[in-house]
Fold these 3 entries.
Entry 1:
Amino acid sequence: MRKLKMIIPYILIVIFTPIYLILDKMFFVKIFGCGCVPIAQTNMFNIPFNANNLKFWVFFIFSIIMLLLQLHFTKNIDNKAIRIVLCVTTFILNIIIAFWVYNATMWQ
């Protein structure tokens, strides 16, 4: 069970991404606008913030949360090198996937 906990921060982004993308298409683009043409951009709040900006911040915060979750799950590991490797790789993997999703699904 302890090893399973340490894998969760690596795989939650795979579950989170499709759910977020569905919400993005159904709600967030309607609320914040797509960011397609910045000059003509309007949204419900009439602010210069669009669904692309929201996606960036949501995935960045998600990556931070996964790092904190991994820190919590690995707090009982005595070997600090292993703990550091697990935490750093969790953060890097989540950031890489978040960056890829952001670029691949950007509203243009």
Note: The radius of gyration is 17 Å.
Entry 2:
Amino acid sequence: MYEIFNIKRFSLSLRRLFVEKGIKMIGSILIILLVMILFMNIEFAPGFYTEVRLFFLILALMFGPVLYMGIVANEFTNHSKGISYLLMPNSAFEKWLLNNVVVIALYYIVFGLLFRLVDMWMVGRLMTTFNLPEGVLTTTEFTSDGFVIATIIGTAISLGILLGSHYFKKNSMIISLLLMFALLILVFFLDYSFANILFNGQVYFGDTAPFGPVSITDPLLTAGRYDLASPVSVKQLITYTFVPVIAILSLTYFVRIKEKQL
């Protein structure tokens, strides 16, 4: 029981997860995809499709895990489930690996593959219907800025919900989301306050973003304002900001499991 990792034991816990929650997990992904397909076909046109595709792809990658993790992260929603989970003969590392890595990775892998099939189907239909030249409309790359940025942020949200399930027994998902939203507002407010102090009150609220560009208003200038752009791209900025957050959430979750391990 106290071994760090045992492949047979881990495979049994993975099988248990699929037997108990597999249908709901896959079902939540299919629901998200069906909603996307519905909106993608409201207006069948190349320009409309590219805009709607990006919008719903970002939503699905960032906030899709909310529904998904609500199904997975419910081990401590009541006393009997919590006891059953703690009595599982898995090490703390195996429990951490399953919920912290495998489950979240499963969402993005399954969703990514199914989305690629939908994207290929829609692009093929549009290319044929409108007789578009080769290369005018292409499928979304997994390495695109939108896909990578939304996945990183979505992973952080997923871990926040997962960690919250160990702190709040009732309405853990809602409370976790509210806390993360409150923390985000606090970060933006602190960023605005520091920027205002640094630039002598010449920054209006909404003209600055954490670690991002700052717009400074100066009535003495002819233009009235000027922007200080960040030297890094948005993709790099999100990576540098959220990867440490993901690491902290992941480590905290592991510590919480260790504390509850029987």
Note: The first strand starts at residue 214 and ends at 217.
Entry 3:
Amino acid sequence: MKTKKPELGVVGQPVWHHYHSRKMTVVEERKDFLAISGSAAFIEIFLNPAATSNLFKWFVRWKINQFVVMEVTGQRLFSDQDLKAAFGLSDVSGEHGEWIISRFGADVAEQTKYIRWKEYLNIPCPGTGGDGDPNVSVYLSEEIKWAVKNLLEI
């Protein structure tokens, strides 16, 4: 799959990525659970106890606090490969990510799950990069990458 440079904003990150992403850090790490949090967003990744195949192995659940009384939540099922690609441990896109890459610019993507360019990750989709988007932006620090590697045992 071919990568495409996204349109960049004034701070040099993709316009679909929120600048608060650099506030995201690992807050809890166990053998089958990982929590990443920032000032307004929270992500947890944990094993799906009902998984019968690798396609549905991990729950990725997120919550975004928007303004004072509003929030957005969501969850998706990820495979090992989805987690690797989303969190910068692989450059192999998902089966349905090519159109997202060609439209928005990215290194890897998978429809309804993630889009990533370099260290800039959005779950589950690209956005406007502003407050109020229904997606979580994460800047992939070495700490976050290391925690996902540990979770996947690679």
Note: Helices lie at 80-86, 98-104, 142-152.
